[in-house]
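Q: What structure does this chain adopt?
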Amino acid sequence: MNRSLDYSLLAKLTQAFGPSGNEREVADVITDSIKDHAESIVTDTMGNLIVRKKGQGHKIMIVCHMDEVGIIVTHINENGFLYYAAVGGLKSGDQVSKRVRFSNGTVGIINKEKDDTVEKKSEKLYIDIGATNEQEAKELVSIGDMAVLTGEFLETENVIISKAVDDRVGCFIALEVIKNITSPYDLYFVFSAQEEVGARGARTAAYTTEADLAIVIDTTFSFDTPKKVQNRTSLHNGVAIKVMDRSIVVSPALKNWMAKIADANSILYQWEIITGGGTDSGPIHLTKGGIPTGGLAIPVRYLHSGNEMVAKKDIIAGIDLLTALITTPLYFEL
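A:
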């Protein structure tokens, strides 16, 4: 299917401030973009945004998470340097010299303590916000404040580069579908909270919606950079249909249905099989008596780095396949 997309909404989504548990700014961007295209928009106690498009058929829940990885300040020393803990999957080696931004606009640079001892201790990372002492730092940042990695939105002919592509690209795909489809199913689009710290929002949303089927849209690793394993998920090879990750083994009937729909509509796809990491699909498929759950994933290079790269071709394939899945009859029994 030929699509011409306006990525300005994706720019707004990625640049919004939204570490785990602080997704309100992202939710506001989402609400503003689809307020005229849904029967109801509700925020629950976990911070999930649940958007409904009513229908008479099976109840289908489409899930993508709003939160991004970040940091939380744990200590401010006498010289005004901030010490912190990671919120989500940040690797210490990837953080040095990166910039972070707090919700009030304060910007800092991550660095590591120098250790000149013979027996090197574990590295301690800190944030330099340019303060000259503890009091000056505390006028800008408090213990418990969160920050996110910075990374401007860049668009080329083939790719998007930005912070928080994980999983604002999933939100973007869901929003494009909400605005452009009519479905026979009763659709609940869940923009979930706190995925990066244990898929917490999706767990409660699954109880609320009690869906007959769930489809999770997230990102996945791209294995096409130098020295990476080949013949696995990679940029420019289409949307990935989940087979397995650490939190779920997808039903063969469900993943094969997705592949048949993709084939019938000439949509480019690949298979996602990863042994580490998980998504909102984990807690959803274990909710109550079990909810049949499948997943679509968009390959991304440099995940959780502040400079994530995604291919436009794969985004379009994701929109096409999600649209086809929720507008055509099921090939299997729920």
